[in-house]
Amino acid sequence: MTGSRGRIDKRQAILEGAFRVFARQGYAQACVQEIADEAGVAKPTVYNHLTDKATLFRHTLEAVAQIALNERLAALDPLHEPGEDLRATLEDVGHRLLRLHCDDRSCALRRLLYSEIDRFPDALDIVRQSGPHRLNEALADRFARLMLAGRLQAGDPAQAAEQFMALLIGPLEARSEMGTRQIDDAELRQVTIAAVRTFLLAFSEQRADGG
User: Boundaries of each HTH tetR-type domain copy (predicted)?
Assistant: First the structure.
C-alpha cells in the first residue's frame, strides 16, 4: 500500500511540476530534466511514469483540467438547496465560477491550450471532456431539478446551463483584453449580477422579480 501511495504521489508531483514548466516555457522549450527538477524526482522517474514528453503534456492537461472541474463542481453546491432567494444563490454560484475562471491556474491552462493547439489538435477534446462539458452537464442537472420544482421555467436544462455559462464567461474575453488584464473582484461581481439578471429574465417563473 505504501509503495502504491508513493507512486501516486510521485506521479502527481510530476504532473504538477510539468504544468508549471509547460506554462512558463511552452511545450517546445520545456525539457524533461527541468520538469524532473521542478517535481523533485529523477529524470528516469518521469519516463517511468509517463514514457515521453508528448504523453506527459497530454496527461498534464487532463490532470489540471480535472482539478479545475472538481473545483467548479464544488462551486455548484449551493444549487442543491437554493433556499427562497434563487437570485442570490445564482449570484453566489456565478461569482464562484468566475473567480475560478480567472484564477492563475485556469488562465495559464487556457494560454497553454491556445498556444499548443496546432501541435496537439486533440488537446481541446482532452480539456473539454475533463472541464466545460462535464460542468455543463452538472449545471444542467441542477437546473432540471429547479424546473421540476417550478423555480425555473420548464424547458431544456442543457440549453439553460449553456446560456448561463455564456452570460458569465462571454464578457470576460473583452474585459480581460484576451487575458492580459486582471479583473478585480468587484468587476467580477458586476458581471455576475448582470448575467443572473439576464438569465432570470429568460428562465425565471417570476420573470426576475426575486426568484
Answer: 8-68
